[in-house]
Amino acid sequence: MQTWQLQEAKAQLSELVRLCSSDGPQILTIRGKEEAVLISKKQYEKLTAKKLSFTKFMRNSPLKGIKLKLSRNKSFDRDIDL
């Protein structure tokens, strides 16, 4: 990420916006302190996109409908090393 002083960012806004799209987020500083990050619209949409619930994710899985043959040990006790 490249760092820009606010007055420099104002003077070169079109370049700053172009760099957001091509090189990624850009940091803006005010009086030497990092105050803001400028990101592209594509990155913003990715960050704010609505997430699928786990249930919907599983229902849309490409593995949906595959029959698994699972078995488990049906004994009631197990040896545990403490």
Description of the structure:
The structure is a single chain. This protein is an alpha+beta fold and 82 residues long. The protein has one domain: YefM-like fold, CATH 3.40.1620.10. The protein is 38% helix and 18% strand. The protein contains four helices and three strands. It has helices at 6-11, 13-23, 41-48, 54-59, and strands at residues 2-5, 26-30, 33-38. The chain has a three-stranded mixed β-sheet. The mean pLDDT is 89.
Q: Which characteristics define this entry?
A:
82 residues; YefM-like fold; three-stranded mixed β-sheet; 38% helix; 18% strand; elongated
Question: Strands, helices and their partners?
Answer:
Elements: E1 2-5, H1 6-11, H2 13-23, E2 26-30, E3 33-38, H3 41-48, H4 54-59
Parallel strand pairs: 1-2
Antiparallel strand pairs: 2-3
TL;DR?
The protein is of the alpha+beta class.
Query: What's the CATH topology label?
Result: YefM-like fold
User: What is the overall silhouette?
Assistant: elongated
Q: Could you name the ranges where pLDDT drops below 50 across 5 or more consecutive residues?
A: none
**SSE ordering:** EHHEEHH
User: Compute the gyration radius: what is it?
Assistant: 25 Å
CATH architectural arrangement: 3-Layer(aba) Sandwich
By CATH's scheme, which homologous superfamily applies?
A: YefM-like domain
Give the DSSP E fraction (strand runs of 2 or more residues). 15-25%
